[in-house]
Amino acid sequence: MSLVPVQRSPHRTKGLVGPLVLVSIASLLISACGSSPSAPTVARVGGTLYCQGEPCLTPEQYRAAYGIQPLLDSGIDGRGETVTVVTPVAPPGQGTTDIRQDLESFDRTFGLPAARVDVVTSLAGSASPWQVTGEAVGDCEHVHAVAPGASLRVVLIPSSWGQSAANGTADMLATLRLAVTHTDVASISWSLGEHYFTKAQAAELHAILLGAAAHHVTVIGSSGDAGWFPTPRGWGGQVKEVSLPASDPLVLGVGGTILTANPKTGAYISETVWPDSGGGFSHLYARPAYQDGVPGISEARGVPDVAGDAAQEGGMALVFTVDGRASLRSPPGTSNSAPLWGGLVALADQYAHRDLGFVNPAIYRIARSSSYHRAFHDITTDIHGTMGYPVAHGWDPITGWGTPNAQELIPLLARFAKPGKT
To answer: What is the pTM of this model?
Structure first.
């Protein structure tokens, strides 16, 4: 499958171009849009921030926990990079929110620079193109917290996806094809179990990803929120499997954890497995070369590769506005952990002065080196009991190699990632 090439200037100018986009407000400053929404109530008890009654972290604390803040302090903030997220368009009559207002309120509440966002409705269509679901808002706010200088791009999936498995897989392929164009990083928090895809569709998806890798686009996919049984979507019984696109060897698959950080400083304390983190072994793809010799992986592609916080309690505070009223929430899911890595790759791209593209071989090389325990938090405890496989030292099919210590990982990733290497 051919890929529309990203046109780059010598100065790495990014943005949406061409006829694919029905709504393209390039580099739109959120603070210039519409009326300002109300600021959410920020409740603290004993120094702890609360989101709808649950303790949560400010973006600053979240960045401190994952070693991101030192990079921002040094000027590595993702500027010049574009991170794309995908989410289904809201069906008629279901709740939506204006993403411009959510991001503006998020920025005002936590002192972040104004976000730049585009919403692409070429596939989904929309009478109100800025109206999105909370999924898109959460993805964008996570990316923006990690890489506040990066531009944000939302690609809406058509509402037809939910009508049948055939529609769901076809819409995913069309959306992925669009999501990996005119971007540097694509963070996909939406997935379907492998058994829904025909062999021809799986081959088509892989061809799209080969095109993305050829154009140095990094593709990141969440591993899912139902353990080793992906959400059936109402199209039949549950199957023990992993989900696409995360299970394709050209995607960086991201699982979920429960993060514990100092409620005042955000300093990292510990992590355990988020019990619903998806993972396991592919029925479609053989073990890729970068997983050769990794304990716990046999002949099939193992998922995920890495992980990030996916829990409600202790998660990062997000801002959602409804009827002009903003509130803090921290909904759970690997929809939180995938955009964390989307923001991290934007930082690594800027650090390296080039788009790193397919980063999986570099991730595994770092993880199998003496730098592993400096660059990653190895998740080895499971206090709740997962719906899948046992956790282990090193790589495991729940949290992969673990979660990032970005101040150590990003320079290593910039150094180890090889241009064009698949």
So the answer is: 0.89
Give me the phi and psi of 109, to 5 degrees please.
-70, -40
* Domain edges within the chain: 34-416
23-70 tens-digit pLDDT: 322 233 333 334 455 667 676 666 788 898 889 999 999 999 999 999
3-state secondary structure of 160: helix
The structure tokens listed for 393 are: 């030292």
Under 8 Å between Cβ of 296 and 243: no
Average pLDDT over residues 363-391: 90
Q: Which CATH superfamily is domain 34-416 in?
A: Peptidase S8/S53 domain (3.40.50.200)
How far is Cα 180 from Cα 65, in angstroms, rounded to an integer? 30
Q: What is the pLDDT of residues 136-188, one digit of tens each?
A: 889 999 999 999 999 999 998 887 777 777 888 899 999 999 999 999 999 99
Cβ atoms within 10 A of the Cβ of 199, count?
Answer: 8
In the DSSP assignment, the letter for residue 114 is: P
